[in-house]
Amino acid sequence: MAHSVLVVMDPIDSVKTQKDTSFALMLEAQRRNWTLYYCQPQDLYLAEGKVKALCQRVKVQDNPNDWYSFQDASQIIVDCGDFSAILMRKDPPFNMNYIYSTYLLELAQQQGALVVNDPASLRDCNEKLYTAWFPEHTPKTLVSANAEQLKQFAHEHGDVIFKPLDGMGGASIFRVKSGDPNLSVIIETLTAHGQDLAMAQQFIPQITEGDKRILIVNGEVVPYTLARIPSKGETRGNLAAGGSGVPMPITADERAIAEAIAPDLVKRGLLFVGLDVIGQYVTEINVTSPTCMRELENEYKINIGAILFAALEKQLSA
């Protein structure tokens, strides 16, 4: 049976093909003879009770100079329920427009499409806060908008990471040590003077060994990780913040952490997830548009996208 997939993502003409996971998933869909469609979140809309997409059929090729071509002269309108699957791959920030998109995708799901990741779980599982569901695997953490509480946490632990709840790529992440004269202004900035929640976590020294990205696909833990190692003078391993990615086999401890979390992911319909693990601790659970797939596939003889699409095909044939 022929399948089709709509990939909802950022502009396709801006992707970096050598490391873009959404692009790699599109390549795998095409290899499996799925009809491939593309749109951006603002191209989804609701009319007469049906969720529709202004989209284009697209062909992709693994060529950094010529990686896509549209098969339609202009956008066409397709009922989202007619797609076999929809991949929601929009990068953060997780703002109200993103939430509105998940409502539309939840309706599309009810109308027949298999949506990855599950739209309700995208709303429920904030990438920072979702770690609180697994306290035995997380560092000491405080989430608060209260300046005095955040200051007390910093004084108690001495070396602390502060970050917003809606960021990505290491943006607006601060490391604060005892006596830092900027503590108050950092808290004011992150909380908008006490209006917004922010997260404080005890600093994990093992960041020097890398912020490990562990991919979990349909509950299956990928046996390799990408260690994002901070550049000199940095405490952030994020590749977007200048970190370097080093592929390596997963350790027994890392696998144990991932396998402890995996069943809850499957239960929530989170089929493609990236854990961020530093030392023995999970610091984030990335559910919106996890990355690092291409780096691992380029280093090792593994097809991570095939694991996902095999799971989709199994669900669609059930």
Rg on CA atoms, Å: 20 Å
Number of strands: 17
The residue ranges in which pLDDT falls below 50 over 5 or more consecutive positions are none
User: What distance lies between the first and last C-alpha atoms, to the nearest angstrom?
Assistant: 13 Å
Instruction: Please report which band the strand proportion falls in: under 5%, 5-15%, 15-25%, 25-35%, 35-45% or over 45%.
Output: 25-35%
Order of helices and strands: EHEEEEEEHEHEHEEHEEEEHEEHH
CATH architecture of the largest domain: 3-Layer(aba) Sandwich
Provide the residue-averaged pLDDT: 94
Helix percentage range = 25-40%
SSE-based structural type: alpha+beta
Keywords: ATP-binding, Glutathione biosynthesis, Ligase, Magnesium, Manganese, Metal-binding, Nucleotide-binding
Cofactor: Mg(2+); Mn(2+)
Enzyme class: ligase
Protein name: Glutathione synthetase
